[in-house]
Amino acid sequence: MTSNRLTSTARLSDVQRQRLLCRDPWLVLGFGVPTFLLLSIPALSLLLFPIATAAGTLLTRRLVAR
């Protein structure tokens, strides 16, 4: 994947962004729900926030590559 392809996601319209997320909703929910729940615990959020950011970036790259 080239950086042009990844940075092009920043210019997606709302409809295109929703289509991207709806391609694999279980993957998105499987990441989002546990991340939300774990980030609600104050002590864990300090450690988990950078990990969740990196994981979200990897998830986005995976969805764009499909």
SSE-based structural type: mainly alpha
Count of all domains? 1
Low-pLDDT stretches are none
Number of strands: 0
The major beta sheet can be summarized as:
none
Principal-axes geometry comes out as: elongated
Mean pLDDT: 84
In angstroms, what is the radius of gyration?
13 Å
> Beta-strand level of the residues, as a percent range?
under 5%
Q: Termini distance?
A: 11 Å
Query: Helix count, per DSSP?
Result: 4
The helical percent reads over 70%
What is the H/E order? HHHH
Question: Could you characterize what this model shows?
Answer:
The protein is an all-alpha fold. It has one domain. It contains 4 helices and no strands. It has helices at residues 3-7, 14-22, 25-39, 42-65. Helix 3 runs antiparallel to helix 4 (42-65). The chain is elongated and about 35 Å long. The mean pLDDT is 84.
